[in-house]
Write the C-alpha cells for this entry.
Amino acid sequence: MLIKNKKISIKKMLCLMAYYSIAYYLPESRKCFRLGKKIRGFLCKHIFQQCGKNVNIERKAWFGSGYKIEIGDYSGIGINAHIPSDTIIGKYVMMGPNCLILDVNHIIDNINEPMCFQGISARKQTIIDDDVWIGRDVKMTPGRHIHRGSVIGMGTILTKDFPEYSIVGGAPAKFIRSRKETVQES
C-alpha cells in the first residue's frame, strides 16, 4: 500500500487501525489509570516518524496516517486536535483541546475564475519549538512556526509567526507581551 508515494509497513498499518478503531475512543489521559494515554502513546511510537518519551496523545486526536509527524519528549496533542502530516512538535509542548493546524489553503488569486476551480496551495510544514503552551481552540493557518517558550492564548487564530517567548492571543493573533519581561510587583 502506498501513502504519498511511501510504502507503509504492516506494523504501522496495524497500529493505525488499532489507534483509529480503539485507542482513539479511550478515555482522556486523566481517567482510568491513564490507560488511554499509555495505549495511544505506544501505538504512536510505531506510527509517527519520531515519538519521544512520555508523550500524551489525547482522546480523539486526529493525525491522518502520521506521515512525517515528529513529537518530542513530554509533549502532548490535545483532545479533538487535528494535526496534519509533516508537523514537528518539540519537547515539553502543551496543547489544549480542539486545536486545528491547517497545512493547505484555497488559491484565490485569479478574480476571473471561480475560487472553487483554482485549487489549493502546496502543503506547508508546521513547526512547534520546545516549551510551548497552545491553549484551547487555537486555529493555525498553514506553515506556522511557533518559536521556543511561546504561549498561544485560548481561541487564538494564528495567522503569522512571532518571536521566541511571545504571549499572543486574539483573532487574528496579536502580540501581548514577551515572557522575558519582568513583572513589576505592586
